[in-house]
Amino acid sequence: MIEEKIFSALERIHTACRSSLQQSVSENGVSSLQAQIMLFLQQRETASVSQLAEHLKLSKPTVSDAVAALSEKKLIKKSFSESDARGYLIILTTKGKQEIAKISGYAAPFLESLGTLTDGQKQALWDALLNLLRTMESQGLISRQRMCFSCMHLGQNINSHTYYCKLMQAPLSIPALRIDCDEHERRTA
């Protein structure tokens, strides 16, 4: 079945990415989990332990241990809330930003490989991946994504298969659709 072949291909890509990340982190003195936390913070700037645990599909104690280790290494710091002394957000320190810049180089060969695809192939792949993520999210296989497909601001012209962001008041091409949008507001049923 083609589904099994696609899954096998995705699994091979995942294995290659994890192997490359592992090699990069071992050279920089952090664990894969710590690197994943730092990569997430690089994209989002701040996060709580709960948000990290949900995104990584791990328990809060496991994430808390990794956050404590990153804090000891001075790669992250905790920003405490004025309204709730127990609540805090995690942010990268300057040293953490420098380290994650080194670590994130692991993705370069994969990005180069994607660069060999035609624009049409990239667009078709992106569209298929977005739809796969949407399905996996609805099945509970991945954490909730802040993507256009689940956002109340997304409109769609069914006949022309085009999208429109009501917040930006602009049409969206397939490549412009996001999987992690700061302005995301979850659509209700």
Written overview of the protein:
There is one protein chain. Helices cover 52% and strands 12% of the residues. It has two domains: 2-109, Arc Repressor Mutant, subunit A (Orthogonal Bundle), CATH 1.10.10; 117-176, no CATH class. With 189 residues, the protein is α+β, with helices and mostly antiparallel strands. The model has no long low-confidence stretch (mean pLDDT 87). The radius of gyration is 19 Å and the shape is globular. Strands 1-3-2 form a three-stranded antiparallel beta sheet. Strands 4-5-6 form a three-stranded antiparallel beta sheet, with no helix packed on it. It has helices at residues 2-28, 32-44, 49-56, 60-72, 94-103, 108-114, 119-138; strands spanning 46-47, 76-80, 88-92, 154-157, 162-165, 170-172.
Return the domain count.
2
Alpha carbon gyration radius: 19 Å
CATH C-level of the largest domain: Mainly Alpha
Strand content bin: 5-15%
- Please count the helical segments: 7
H and E string = HHEHHEEHHHEEE
CATH architecture of the largest domain: Orthogonal Bundle
